[in-house]
Amino acid sequence: MNILPVSACSQNKKYQPNFKSCIKIYNPKNVTSLDIFAKDKVRTSSCPFRSDQDWNDFMRYIFWNFAGEDKVNISSLACADGSEPLSYALYLYDKTPKSYYGKFYITASDIDSEMIKVAKSGRINLSNGDFKNIEKYIKNPQRYFTDYGKPIKITNNVDEERYSYKIDSEVHSLIKFKKSDILTEVKKMNPDEYYILNIKNVFPYLKENYINEVLETMSKKLKSGSIFVYGKYDLLVSNFKNRLFNLGFFEPKQGECFVQKI
Length: 262
Ligand SMILES: C[S@@+](CC[C@H](N)C(=O)[O-])C[C@H]1O[C@@H](n2cnc3c(N)ncnc32)[C@H](O)[C@@H]1O
Known about the structure:
The chain has ten helices and ten strands.
């Protein structure tokens, strides 16, 4: 496990370190200075089935909420190495028949080209701790990952204790990746379709006016009944939940990091 000093984890002092073994920290390339608050120190920490949600509980709600619908978009913005959309793809593929999971369209993007290249590659760096985490939701997760040996090289990656795995190609093919920034993708959402919009653990990096524009645009674009999923770190942004309530969202399950459009 790689334990980082607090100072290395936080230029923005509010941002607390994550001591999980899956942490990755690197300086992103080609990131526009306009929207990144701490542009030299953006962290891409991610892992499948990140603990912001109890995924069984959360997915039960998703299945119930969208039971009668033919098409639901799962959009994962600021997806880093793709661990987050992979959690959806794995969960749906493992637990539901194709006739059911076929109605969920998973797209994912990140502003950093290197992260998107990794996400698109169909490989992922995973530690033993990551596997234990996946096992909470997926029995024998090794079925979906083939040992690939050396970790994928990521610029300024501080975590060298992981191995890389090839993700089952059918599972990986459920996700469409592209390089893009959050606001561009939020503006492009179709107001006539349902979304599970994930923008997780990135808001503390963003400038206030950018945050406002993202929140206001998504509140206009998201159809009633759509879900917005944030991360625990996003609660560091001042008044984050109240801002969501004021923009027309309610919390169907208290304490879990998601809200729903009224
Ligand atoms: C801490 S990671 C979060 C990963 C994942 N959402 C999760 O919660 O596990 C933050 C990611 O946000 C990306 N990012 C930062 N600003 C962005 C922007 N304006 N648009 C899209 N991605 C951005 C970074 O490149 C980084 O990969």
